[in-house]
């Protein structure tokens, strides 16, 4: 959008401002150095700047032009500096007969040098001098800078003569880039012109290879700092991959090498086609619109598009909600498509640079430099690819022999990626461009072609690095065209703190995790998955299911069910038979089941296991589902998968496996209990016979059925030591580094609010409970085990942390310390959490357990939530059997197993309604506590 002088004058009338400032000096005989005059001048400038910026924001909301907004702000800044400069010269530091040294040019550098500014951008200035600094020059520069600082601008500046500029630009790439972008604002224009002329002749000429190498390395280092993916759901729009800085880097390179001043000149140079130039402009304009809105909204130079601002930016940009997609998700999808465009433009310009210098000797010029950057060395020989006519390889990069290779045989659009994967070839930028220009050939005929589908399946199930090849297919657009269902989730963002990447990026990453597991490169994170994947009868099914498991995201119906339907349609096309298709569809429909059950169900409850086994039905499916679940969670984002989740999944697998293989779970409960007692008896053989017999009768049957062997022995030692020391309270802290949790075991007299006190103590110390197991002994003691998230890397430090928590539990139980009420309520949720709305929901289910009523409580996560829930449950006269806490970003799902005071399930509908209402209030932070109300201890006393 070209801005007219009339429009710009409407925004900031510098002539009128100059007249008002001159009038202010009349009372002091034209002396603008008077402190009162300076204060009045500053006030006038502040008023005009605020008015101008308000107008610019209003115009942004009206026309939506990002570049127009940035140019308007730059114009305002230019005019402001000109006014201040002239006021300093004519009214503050007047020189009637200036010497040759008393000259100065003011130039904008950095982003400001490009004539674009965001509302919160720094103002980068270069004061150019002819010789060394003079007292007059120091005074003028100081006046301008202090006036800008007092106006609230953050100013970066340098004062140098031309010789200094040239000398420093030769040695410092940052200064060289700043001078490259220098733009004249005001002052002695010949000085500026001399700098530009000398810079071009003495610095730029013959040094483009050096400059391009430095800028590309600088870009790569920045990407590593910001996160290598352009599909992070909270992107940095300036510094992140696919952001404005990447576009800046491209233009720096093009301007330096091709000696151009405007992007449009790259079309004349043959670097960009007309359509590619328009894409450049469009992406630049969109990113500037987002950045300007973000700065105006935040009131500061905020560059991260975080969850708490995304929805407001979406509304400002005019996005609306569509079926299956929120307004914010539509906006973010557009953002990620633009980020992808930036990547495409990067490849196009780099290809043009390399093409221009293709005949240069190895190691010389740009082509040699770019090969060195990639680490590719070797012979210049162009070698044909065996078995693939139409393709050649040079410097380990695959290229086409002609521009018609895909028109002649469209299956080559799949074959090219299969070749790249098989031989680990990189793609030549020219080949990438040709692929993108040939996308129209990916039509219904090619999608149904058996050979094309065979080639695609070969890439998807490759034993090499399928993630890398699939990402290249996605970036070129082939993947979304060949699998249209995948195309619908390209750049699709899920507005959730749980998901770190867009849907397509998550799917591609999950294939990479799967390949890592199969190669044994996943370390110790998932040993069971690594073992099981080697025993699969048909690994192909796992990769296809992994690729399709989230492909129906963004639809109105449940994506698991819709995804299974997509699989039944698409798998036969991939060459899968009916049985294979059925297995893939089943895996997709149930791909969340194992994670949900492992994290939110009582795995010691036999019905949990038998119900899950009935769903799975075969050991092969169980193996497939376990591996798929591990890879899915791991691909969500860094830190989402941890040892504790892995342990829960292993526990569920090992508990379910015998049901599907006819193993030892056919033993009766009584035999299982006898075996557990006999094993423990051997471990405590050093006890007195009387003590041993008493302890073996101290627990109810449920305890023996669900407690692992090592914990049985640890609990026995804890009880025995407490008995010998005549203590009623005993604690044990066990850091479990592999699982990423610390286990706290508490032995205490049966107490109606014990779990609530434990939860409150953890809340007070900042510890996050991830699971809890509750048992009651026959002699009235409670044995409660809670698992808290690990915070410290060293076991000794973590052990001391656990001991601090247990000391607080002890003092609270003794009544020596009062626990605080949770202060974080829904109305005071801060930060990113404010962006999310999670409806509070309480489900009451009597079919998930033979013994307990299962309460499934969903809501917005907050500190102290479990504390509130357990206090509420205590007032509802309910016994707690176990509690399981699962957090998915901003959403928490707490599942609590309860009975009434008689050990029975909650069957009365009226009472269920009361429980549902009270717990829903507790989720909102409205806990109704009645100290006089009768309360009951949790546990299995009656139930057992």
Automatic annotation (TrEMBL):
Residue intervals of the HD domain: 503-625
Cofactor: Mg(2+)
Catalytic activity: [protein-PII]-uridylyl-L-tyrosine + H2O = [protein-PII]-L-tyrosine + UMP + H(+); [protein-PII]-L-tyrosine + UTP = [protein-PII]-uridylyl-L-tyrosine + diphosphate
GO molecular function: [protein-PII] uridylyltransferase activity; phosphoric diester hydrolase activity
Gene Ontology BP terms: regulation of nitrogen utilization
Region called Uridylyltransferase, residue ranges: 1-384
Keyword annotations: Hydrolase, Magnesium, Multifunctional enzyme, Nucleotidyltransferase, Repeat, Transferase
Stretches assigned to the ACT domain: 743-820, 854-934
SMART domains: HDc (SM00471)
Keyword S-adenosyl-L-methionine: no
Regulation of its activity: Uridylyltransferase (UTase) activity is inhibited by glutamine, while glutamine activates uridylyl-removing (UR) activity.
EC number: 2.7.7.59, 3.1.4.-
Pfam entry (one): ACT_ACR9_3rd
Annotated function: Modifies, by uridylylation and deuridylylation, the PII regulatory proteins (GlnB and homologs), in response to the nitrogen status of the cell that GlnD senses through the glutamine level. Under low glutamine levels, catalyzes the conversion of the PII proteins and UTP to PII-UMP and PPi, while under higher glutamine levels, GlnD hydrolyzes PII-UMP to PII and UMP (deuridylylation). Thus, controls uridylylation state and activity of the PII proteins, and plays an important role in the regulation of nitrogen metabolism.
Domain comment, as recorded: Has four distinct domains: an N-terminal nucleotidyltransferase (NT) domain responsible for UTase activity, a central HD domain that encodes UR activity, and two C-terminal ACT domains that seem to have a role in glutamine sensing.
Family per record: Belongs to the GlnD family.
HAMAP family: PII_uridylyl_transf
Name of this chain's protein: Bifunctional uridylyltransferase/uridylyl-removing enzyme
Organism annotation: Roseibium marinum
